[in-house]
Amino acid sequence: MTERVRIPRDLSNDYTEEMAAARRRFVAGHTGAALDHVGHYSIDPALVSGNGENFFGVAQVPIGVAGPLRIDGEYASGEFLVPLATTEGTLIASYSRGMRLLTESGGVRTAVVEDYMQRAPAFVCGDAVAARNFGRWVDEHFDQIKKAAESTTRVGQLAYIGQYQVGPIRYLRFNYRTGDAAGQNMTGKATLAACNWIEENYPERLEYLLSGNADTDKKHSGINMLLTRGKRVVAEAVIKNDVLKNLMGVEGHELFFARQISNVGSFLGGNANNGAHYANGLTAIFIATGQDVANISESHAGVTYSQLLDNGDYYWSVTLTSLIVATHGGGTGLPTQRECLEMLGCYGTGKVRKFAEVCAATVLAGETSLSSAVLHGDWVSSHDRLGRNPA
Amino acid sequence: MTERVRIPRDLSNDYTEEMAAARRRFVAGHTGAALDHVGHYSIDPALVSGNGENFFGVAQVPIGVAGPLRIDGEYASGEFLVPLATTEGTLIASYSRGMRLLTESGGVRTAVVEDYMQRAPAFVCGDAVAARNFGRWVDEHFDQIKKAAESTTRVGQLAYIGQYQVGPIRYLRFNYRTGDAAGQNMTGKATLAACNWIEENYPERLEYLLSGNADTDKKHSGINMLLTRGKRVVAEAVIKNDVLKNLMGVEGHELFFARQISNVGSFLGGNANNGAHYANGLTAIFIATGQDVANISESHAGVTYSQLLDNGDYYWSVTLTSLIVATHGGGTGLPTQRECLEMLGCYGTGKVRKFAEVCAATVLAGETSLSSAVLHGDWVSSHDRLGRNPA
Amino acid sequence: MTERVRIPRDLSNDYTEEMAAARRRFVAGHTGAALDHVGHYSIDPALVSGNGENFFGVAQVPIGVAGPLRIDGEYASGEFLVPLATTEGTLIASYSRGMRLLTESGGVRTAVVEDYMQRAPAFVCGDAVAARNFGRWVDEHFDQIKKAAESTTRVGQLAYIGQYQVGPIRYLRFNYRTGDAAGQNMTGKATLAACNWIEENYPERLEYLLSGNADTDKKHSGINMLLTRGKRVVAEAVIKNDVLKNLMGVEGHELFFARQISNVGSFLGGNANNGAHYANGLTAIFIATGQDVANISESHAGVTYSQLLDNGDYYWSVTLTSLIVATHGGGTGLPTQRECLEMLGCYGTGKVRKFAEVCAATVLAGETSLSSAVLHGDWVSSHDRLGRNPA
Amino acid sequence: MTERVRIPRDLSNDYTEEMAAARRRFVAGHTGAALDHVGHYSIDPALVSGNGENFFGVAQVPIGVAGPLRIDGEYASGEFLVPLATTEGTLIASYSRGMRLLTESGGVRTAVVEDYMQRAPAFVCGDAVAARNFGRWVDEHFDQIKKAAESTTRVGQLAYIGQYQVGPIRYLRFNYRTGDAAGQNMTGKATLAACNWIEENYPERLEYLLSGNADTDKKHSGINMLLTRGKRVVAEAVIKNDVLKNLMGVEGHELFFARQISNVGSFLGGNANNGAHYANGLTAIFIATGQDVANISESHAGVTYSQLLDNGDYYWSVTLTSLIVATHGGGTGLPTQRECLEMLGCYGTGKVRKFAEVCAATVLAGETSLSSAVLHGDWVSSHDRLGRNPA
To answer: Is the pTM of this model over 0.95?
Structure first.
């Protein structure tokens, strides 16, 4: 293309069916791709304003239902039917099987044990002493900084500022409560306001970046695992050994033996979690319910901890250390996404902890199922039967 | 619910519109959620066989188009319009801006530099000596093990077996070429066959788990970053300083200064990558094109390396160390997903490296855009303008 | 040996020359090793009481002197002659060369920017909710817990308790100020007292381990790098480009180019620091001055951050994130060790920050020297000339 | 000091008692420190040539003897008395107690399961494609590169070259067998020769650094843990539950419960090992036997793996993944150091694997002792009794 190709846009109102269709024609014309299915949707393009630019259609991602899953959490209570949007065969069947195991064992206890969202600007000072002294000044002026940050938001609350110094750089990691929103934008805006206040009031000249990559946004990190990003949520259950034998064909002591092997492999490999496939179920719920799916990068981090009980039953817990979810804002209000949140009774304000608990319980279900299948030896055969094995 | 609730299923043929509708009624009845939009789709439920169980509808995820992006790769060559399925406002506009920067600077060079998919069984031997000797036997019988593994697949090829020992456990990490498929199932099946062969032929009794969590599947890990999982793909560009100034309002030397800060933050935090938001663009392409989106957990790992050139231009590279993608099999053949792959000329066999290059080039575009915005200070304001800020 | 061999011990007073000689005879008799040199020392065995059991002699570790090194720190100020106990040829010459470079560039600025020692018991509760609630109770009773902890020590002060939960386990990481002692024992004792107080006063039954390996004692860890263990100390200098050229034969821009390569290698490898050989100089000072040398495992962690200045000079900083040192207690009072601390004006109370600054400045000197040598290509040849190359 | 202070040196022969004394006078004069004890030694300064510059005395580090420890290894066989040079009170007593536990349980099995030493130059190519193609050329010319490398050494053998690419940088990690030497210098020299050969023979111009920090020398790293640096050595034992109860007052099932807690803490913290205090015993042996003690940074990495047996006995293994030791060259030939190696029957050529086994067995002994003490609650009280608690 000698001349710059321009995607059609209407500067006055770009979120219309006309413009979506114009872009489909444009793309089809330039690439030869038919966009018939992409153009088939029930959502009003006007709704997409705020959720994406240059809208021209939708991905239709199949959703299956898994469950019921009995949860006995602080916010989630009862039996849940969980919508999973995925294209990986066997996944829904596998999670459903794990949900049955947990439900027949009496259900899953769940709890959110910590809750923070971060933005971490980096301040570059003249030298290390200046950076340390700046850090002290920040501690001393926390109340004013908090006020400046919170002036930008009705919901967000600045809980504390972690400080980490390297050379003359002082990383300030602002930790917020963000209500029912995931809060990355809210915290970005609040932190910018805080930085502006600091810049104006600090007696010396300061240079800073709004993010110095110690947040850490849209990427797994050790700091997130330790200090929590989003929700730190635990799902735990005591699995009855006889139910385990009947449904899965394995026993608690076998799973516990395998856990030791898996812990070692995970420690050696430097894994983001020591579980089997946390990411699978999480991703499927995230897509179905309008979460920011890129947050899977952080959200799949966690730790499995288990114990074999004297009676042969098996205590199994999953702790998601960085679960970033929302029930309000972002993509949660789009039509199919909202319907899926409503399936869980998790749409809107006041629901985010309930939703986090459902996510963690679902992850635990998937862990029990896949781990048993790997141990029992039917993992490959079930993929052959239910999955689209490409070769 | 006193009696066990059962999701409707038709054991003879579950992938029909009738069954999908039956499940929607069931879910709606049990949860009170309307499923009108979820039930609106153009795909034939029969197509979902192999891609998910208990199908009852679709997530409609909005797709926008970004570009054009000029790529001068080994497989991808020309200008591309990239479909991004996301609900995060500003993301598509931001990637598009980065694509313009790169395209006006002459485009992106791309290359796949390594390519492996793994399955890592753990063999537990009698003691450490036995485990080490077992490992030697495996080396000596590689050709036969390879033959056994490859007997299960037309496409997969066993390249080498990495070995990692802890105590009496020998982790064997089977590394395969998997053609245009991502290959997790293919390699699982092949490795099971290999393990069976080993078990039958090894003179001593062996105990093994098909996966000991050193693969590492569906989770970020250090071993993946080092030794590659999926494609190791590089996108690199020299960004002209005057284009950078005009489009982004920043200069190369400023970006390079910020890079040093960001490298330190990433090293300190134990980040899965030292970039800005690799996961955002990748996830949006993955959803649009039918990738196994849970693989974002591994695929977002990587390393940014850059240099400031003497003339003020800025060399910028992104290396994705564990990009897991397919252009064949899995969800790639579903209707909207296929259309999006066709937009890129990447549908079907022989296209996976081209697609990997497009993914990496897109990531690079997003890095240039967000990093510039953070530096220039308009990151927050653009989210206010284009994003759905929930508080 | 059919009968259990017993090392000679005198239960009434084991720290005598007689018992040392008896053990030398015992060891020589059982192993055939002559222990003539081991038995040659000037220290009084009585002094070793509290520093080691079953004393039978000494390791004579050669010490060389490096310097002078000009330091312009908060506590260390002036030119220092640094004792380095090592058996690695070229090391002292290399550090000395770096010290000259730094001194001729105007010296090194140093500062301790954070200071904590930890002990991290793990409390296992009934479930995740109980563990979270226990954590809140700990926060609410911080003053009383602090009082209980501090009742065991004249020096130690409990600064804060970090909390990290996984499943039903609540890791409490007690962070103390420990004055001029490294403080591992002091904090162990204080934390035990705190745990006893907690056990007695918490309304529910608790189970705990005094250390759950989140301290993390005697091992490198991510948590130490982030949250500091011992001293977080920075050494920084602006190295004049002409001095660099004259002494080292390299230029600032070359070092900066190499830094980018080294940062990538370190990030990819999962390195405990991104420098060249922090551990070398540190270990040599530690042995000379009676530090607990096993703490090298934690103390060698850190981050190098540098910038190329517009005039070609090179800003170079080293941040040791977990430097564990003492100038009082432990081995610091033994005769040769005390003499070496006195060489630095660092013996006794009130000197530990000064000593930490000397350590960091020495590390920086070694970094400049080795990095230049690798770049200039004389690293191997100098080892050939000065080192004992064994093959 | 207005004029540059110069440490006395004799360019014709600096390794004499006269020069050592001259330097002591110089240091004493400039610093006021008496160096009486430092000047008391039995070693001939001429011996220090090759082990350190500017020699002026010795550190007298107290050595105690621990044991006997029964080892049933591939190279180490029988009962060993282990010299531990340390200033940390209780340490020797604690290791000795663990040795008794292991010996009374039947002893420790040991084995070296992998053995490599590395040097990792970084080649910077024109772009990613060029770097990948360069890597292929290296593979194709491995035999010639090996020949060039091995031309510099009688002992070293190049086993394989690992390749890791980021952007246009190709890190080549040369893996050698180094006989009884640790081999860092040997491999540096050999790799320089290999790089020279590559530079001369590669058809395009190349730029490289002799180390790009992916080796990784003198620092802990994930790559070392995975791919072995030095010796990968396992020590394992089945500890009888009744012996455990009698000697330690704890039982196997209690230790196993604690192991689960400790595994979680280690995974969460990003620890270099999941053990209690590997570094303590290792450091003490290293100092006693003339190892390069800075290698503790790498050598303390490892993995503890254990299982509770059905009869209540406890299987415990320690795998050191990066143990860097020598029995020839370096400081091993110095008088006291040699005597300590002779105590173990480990001095000289052909002994390095035996020595590695002794190191690992000693580490295992220390793990059993400290872990039991922490569990039994006498860890603090024994430090009070035996250690020099500074506050």
So the answer is: yes
* Closest residue by Cα to residue A101 from A239, A268, A236, A254: A239
For the record, the structure tokens of A178 come out as 């963000």
Active-site residue identified among C88, C104, C150, C378 = C88
Nearest Cα to B374, choosing from B277, B239, B242? Answer: B277
pLDDT category at D390 given cuts 50, 70, 90 is very low
Choosing from C14, C292, C298, C357, which is the catalytic residue? C292
**Which residues are B316's β-sheet partners?**
B237, B306
**In B, which residues are within 8 Å of A153 by CB distance?**
391
Distances in Å between the Cα of D299 and the Cα atoms of A47, C123, D228, D302 are 59, 31, 10, 8
Say yes or no for a CB contact (<8 Å) between D386 and C169.
Answer: no
Q: Where does residue D177 rank: exposed (0-12), middle (13-18), buried (19+ CB within 10 A)?
A: middle
- Going by their DSSP bridges, the two strands A122-124 and A55-73 should be labelled as unpaired
C-alpha distances (whole Å) from B236 to each of B71, C334, D128 are 10, 58, 8
Q: Which of A260, A309, A310 best probes binding to D when mutated, by most D CB atoms within 10 angstroms?
A: A260
pLDDT along chain C (391 residues), means of 10: 79 96 97 97 96 97 98 98 97 98 98 97 96 98 98 96 98 96 92 96 93 96 98 98 96 96 98 98 98 98 97 97 96 97 97 98 98 82 58 39
Say how many CA atoms lie within 13 Å of D261 toward its Cβ. 31
* pLDDT tens readout for residues B296-315: 999 999 999 999 999 999 99
Interface predicted TM-score of the whole assembly (ipTM), two decimals: 0.96
The answer to whether D113 contacts B127, with C-beta atoms less than 8 Å apart, is no
Structure tokens belonging to residue D176:
């050698």
Q: In whole angstroms, what is the distance from residue C319 CA to residue C304 CA?
A: 6
Whether B226 and D165 lie within 8 Å, measured CB to CB: no
User: Do the Cβ atoms of C158 and C176 come closer than 8 Å?
Assistant: yes
Pairing state of beta strands D108-119 and D55-73? parallel
A neighbour chains, 3+ CB pairs within 8 Å: B, C, D
Q: What does the pLDDT look like over A255-270, one tens digit per residue?
A: 999 999 999 999 999 9
Per the annotation, the verdict on B383 as an active-site residue is yes
C383 tagged catalytic: yes
D114, D232, D262, D267: which to substitute to probe chain A, counting the most A Cβ within 10 Å? Answer: D267
* Number of CB atoms found within 10 A of residue B368's CB: 30
pLDDT band at A391 (very low <50, low <70, confident <90, very high): very low
pLDDT tens digits, B311-345:
999 999 999 999 999 999 999 999 999 999 999 99
Number of Cβ atoms within 10 Å of the Cβ of A204: 10
Whole-number pLDDT of residue D1: 43
Pairwise CB contact (< 8 Å): B319 & D165: yes
Share of chain B above pLDDT 90, in %: 93
Q: Which residue of B has its CA nearest to A31?
A: B343
Asked if C165 and A113 come within 8 Å (Cβ–Cβ), the reply is: yes
Contact B165 D114 (CB under 8 A): yes
Residues A205 and A281: their CA atoms lie apart, in Å, by 48
DSSP symbol at B5: P
Is C140 a known active-site residue? no
- Looking at residue D70, the DSSP 8-state letter turns out to be E
